């Protein structure tokens, strides 16, 4: 008979990390000077120096775990360029760029497009519809979960399927605090031919129908609490075992440990003032 402790041990042995390659942008010009999400308040003091320190600690955490981190040069006047995940989705070497809803961020899309071309990517597609990339697109290894409701246009989901050649499942976001999919859901383990994908998410961020879809697709998902979501705990990055996560997300961190993951809590207090955390700062370069 399998006991609860045996199940935990089995779970621990099943969590296998895979080496990843990420694209990041130093927040050298980070500030909060406009409002495009509920987290942003230009009247709140912001320390660019502290933001750089927090970003650097995050980058060093990835590197200590064996991952490769590429960087793009930040541009003055684009304070949100640090959130690289919003500017591209890469699967099997195919790149789908971004088209931002907010005009303050529109210039970022072409800067990242040029980075991909300079880095040798040749299959680069720019969307015609608003598409905020990995902010609203999460690859599970089998399907692309695609958020909509506040930023990414629903029609961009069909463009993503065509450009990336992977099946897409649309998910409806309903809470303006969780305006992107990546602040409401994280893929912890990608699917393989012998293993199902594993995710964590905050149910109340999604419409009732979407909640039913997620429960059907991921019956063993970790369900985050209000407190987990409110500190951007779901804006995390996982390599299949190691999870870089906001340090305040104590409930989710405990759940991750119980499910065999190794959390790596980081301080994102300054970056969070613009509505971002580890995932926002980290675009994965797959293939």
TrEMBL record:
It comes from the Bacteria. Pfam families: DDAH_eukar. One of its GO terms (molecular function) is dimethylargininase activity. Its EC number is 3.5.3.18. Keywords: Hydrolase. SUPFAM superfamilies: Pentein. NCBIfam families: DiMArgaseDdahMtb. This is Dimethylargininase. It comes from Actinokineospora guangxiensis. The gene is ddaH.
């Amino acid at each position: 008979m399998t006991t609860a402790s045996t199940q935990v041990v089995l779970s621990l042995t099943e969590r296998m990390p895979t080496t990843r390659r990420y694209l990041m942008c130093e927040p050298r010009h980070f500030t909060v000077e406009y409002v495009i999400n509920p987290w942003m308040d230009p009247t709140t003091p912001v320390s660019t120096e502290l933001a750089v320190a927090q970003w650097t600690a995050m980058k060093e955490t990835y590197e200590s775990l064996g991952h490769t981190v590429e960087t793009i040069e930040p541009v003055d006047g684009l304070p949100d360029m640090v959130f690289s995940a919003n500017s591209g989705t890469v699967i099997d070497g195919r790149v789908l760029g971004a088209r931002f809803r907010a005009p303050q961020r529109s210039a970022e899309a072409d800067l990242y497009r040029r980075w991909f071309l300079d880095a040798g990517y040749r299959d680069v597609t720019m969307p015609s519809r608003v598409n905020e990339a990995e902010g609203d697109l999460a690859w599970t290894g089998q399907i692309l979960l695609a958020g909509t409701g506040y930023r990414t246009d629903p029609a961009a989901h069909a463009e993503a399927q065509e450009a990336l050649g992977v099946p897409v499942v649309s998910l409806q976001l309903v809470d303006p605090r969780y305006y992107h999919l990546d602040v409401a859901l994280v893929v912890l383990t990608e699917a393989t031919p012998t293993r199902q994908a594993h995710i964590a998410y905050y149910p109340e961020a999604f419409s009732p129908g979407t909640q039913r879809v997620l429960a059907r697709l991921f019956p063993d998902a970790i369900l985050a609490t209000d407190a987990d979501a409110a500190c951007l705990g779901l804006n995390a990055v996982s390599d299949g075992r190691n999870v870089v996560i906001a340090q305040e997300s104590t409930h989710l961190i405990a759940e991750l440990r119980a499910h065999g993951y190794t959390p790596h809590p980081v301080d994102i207090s300054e970056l969070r003032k613009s509505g971002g955390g580890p995932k926002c700062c980290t675009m994965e370069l797959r293939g």
